[in-house]
Write a structure and sequence with these properties.
heterodimer; A: about 325 residues; alpha/beta; TIM Barrel; 3-stranded antiparallel sheet; B: about 210 residues; Methyltransferase, Methionine Synthase (B12-binding Domains), Chain A, domain 1; Rossmann fold; 5-stranded parallel sheet; about 55% helix
Chain lengths: ~325, ~210
């Protein structure tokens, strides 16, 4: 039986896996690494992060949102971003790194990839700072300022990457940046190529030049029109790919260059009245249509969790069952 | 190209700095304010159709709507009290328990560009608040309810039922990622739209039926 890591490599290289890669099993995410997550910590809390972005998680909701009313918007005028945006320090004490280092050391790297985690993404950072509407309009109205802001975020990401690499020597990177809605990309492929691709070529190029073997990018959205750019950026696995992308077609077209992880829409199966039968139905369809190579069945959720207790575990259990049925 | 044609072209291209001047020039040439407004509404119809067809994306729609609103600012003083150019009032909001506002804002912008007066209730709107807004505003023709989460679909259903029970003649349209035409029909909505461009078309269709 192949290790989780070996089996993953067989899938993404078009070899002979002995089972489905089961969701996030190949990644050992080092979430203890000190970082500035774009989240309020729990329902009923509100925090201002080190970039000055306020995140609110109302008690009755399933997640937190950046706040963009006039009082809370961190960047009010893109042309004045140099005065209004200040990246936090990427340096943390040895004590702050200790838990992450210990976790990374404990991992059997023959079995799993020690995986660094980064969120938010570069595009997300622009709209967290200034709101989606302002950020998207600024791409047209103030393109030079937007490019400068993106370069600034890239500098921060590169500096943070250097610290992560120094402390935990990751084999893989799991990086978030949502690039679309359920049915379309937020921006056109041309605009994506102009603003976003150069930024990620730098960032992902840096991780890969420093020992990272695998780049997994999360965007739980439609983004089929951006796949050629994902390949150009160096993404090995697109996690979060939703069914609206026609994943079997993408695999046929691009599978030898990029692997697709998802095709089980969390929105369809992860809700209070969830059932194993429904998960089985969606997962079986995904596995049958997408096949055994260049595909990892996974919830579209951007971490190895679910919004409602038990859904992630039930999905893993179903994938194990399907491996037995189909391999 | 006539000035009014130029206004149309520049709204579609999202040239918000040029549109106010062109609107003024069209008026100076003798075009009626209502005629200029109609030209811009038609441009936004084209923008909505292109968005629905996947030919343009959110930024293009946003800058076109901004260009139109700059043009409307020039027309407003000339059209004050002229209700004949409005298709009526549309009350819009994201339903209770749901904080997603981006999609709802885009829909609001496009429905406004189609010629409605908008009352935007924001996010996390209880069913009764939709009803109160219909009571508090004049000439409400459309209530637009958005829901982005599977968990808030019951709230969407409740919003539709509550509004229809209180105001059977007001048309209710629904949308959001988990909403399907079948679900819209099941909960008793008068219309469904899969995206912002289609929502404007559907609102106009229902208000003028």
């Amino acid at each position: 039986m192949l290790t989780k890591r070996q089996n993953l490599m067989e899938v993404i290289k078009g070899g002979t896996p002995d089972r489905f890669v089961n969701q996030y099993e190949f990644m050992e995410l080092i979430m203890e690494a000190p970082m500035d997550l774009p989240l309020a910590p729990a329902p009923g809390t509100r925090v201002k992060n080190k970039w000055g972005i306020t995140f609110d998680w109302p008690a009755d909701q399933i997640g937190s949102f950046p706040m963009h009313d006039e009082e809370h918007k961190a960047l009010k005028d893109i042309t004045d971003w140099k005065n209004q945006v200040k990246a936090p320090s990427v340096f943390y004490t040895d004590e702050e790194w200790a838990a992450a280092e210990a976790h990374a050391k404990s991992v059997d790297r023959n079995d799993k990839f020690v995986t660094a985690f980064c969120a938010p993404g570069i595009f997300e950072m622009t709209h967290h700072l200034m709101s989606m509407e302002d950020a998207l309009m600024a791409l047209y109205e103030e393109p030079e300022a937007m490019k400068e802001l993106i370069d600034y975020v890239v500098e921060y990401e590169l500096a943070y990457a250097a610290e992560v690499i120094k402390h935990i020597h990751p084999d893989a990177l799991f990086h978030h940046d949502d690039w679309g809605s359920q049915i379309s990309s937020f921006i056109s492929p041309q605009m994506f190529n102009e603003f976003i691709v150069p930024a990620y070529k730098q960032v992902y190029g840096f991780w890969k030049a420093n020992g990272v073997e695998l780049i997994i990018h999360h965007s739980d959205s439609y983004a089929a029109n951006l796949v050629p750019f994902m390949i150009e950026m160096g993404i090995d696995i697109w996690q979060g790919v939703m069914t609206t992308n026609n994943v079997p077609e993408l695999i046929k077209k691009y599978g030898e260059k990029i692997t697709f992880m998802g095709d089980i829409d969390s929105g369809r199966v992860d809700f209070p009245g969830w059932t194993r039968e429904k998960i089985y139905e969606d997962t079986k369809k995904a596995c049958e249509e997408c096949g055994k190579l260049y595909f990892i069945p996974c919830l579209s959720q951007g971490l190895n969790i679910s919004s409602f207790p038990g859904v992630y575990e039930a999905t893993s259990d179903v994938i194990d069952q399907l491996s037995k049925e189909m391999f | 190209m006539s000035k009014i044609e130029e206004v149309k072209a520049k709204v579609e291209a999202g040239k918000s700095k040029l549109v106010p001047g062109l609107v003024q020039e069209a008026l100076d040439e003798g075009s009626a304010p209502a005629e200029v407004l109609q030209a811009m509404v038609e441009s936004m119809g084209v923008v909505g159709d292109k968005f629905s067809a996947g030919e343009i994306f959110v930024p293009e729609m946003l800058i076109a709507a901004k260009a139109m609103s700059k043009g409307v600012e020039v027309l407003k003083p000339l059209m004050a009290g002229d209700g004949s150019t409005s298709l009526g009032t549309c009350v819009i909001g994201t339903v209770a328990g749901d904080l997603h506002d981006i999609g709802k804002n885009l829909v609001s912008m496009m429905i406004e560009s189609a010629g409605f007066d908008m009352v935007d209730l924001g996010v996390d709107v209880p069913a009764d608040t939709f009803v109160q807004a219909v009571k508090d505003n004049t000439n409400v023709k459309i209530v637009a309810c958005s829901g982005l989460l599977t968990t808030t679909m019951p709230a969407l259903k409740e919003a539709v039922a509550t509004v229809k029970a209180a105001f059977p003649d007001v048309k209710v349209i629904v949308g959001g990622a988990p909403v399907t035409p079948e679900y819209a029909a099941e909960v008793g909505a008068d219309g469904y739209a899969p995206d912002a461009g289609s929502a404007a078309v559907k609102a106009r269709e229902l208000a003028t039926a």
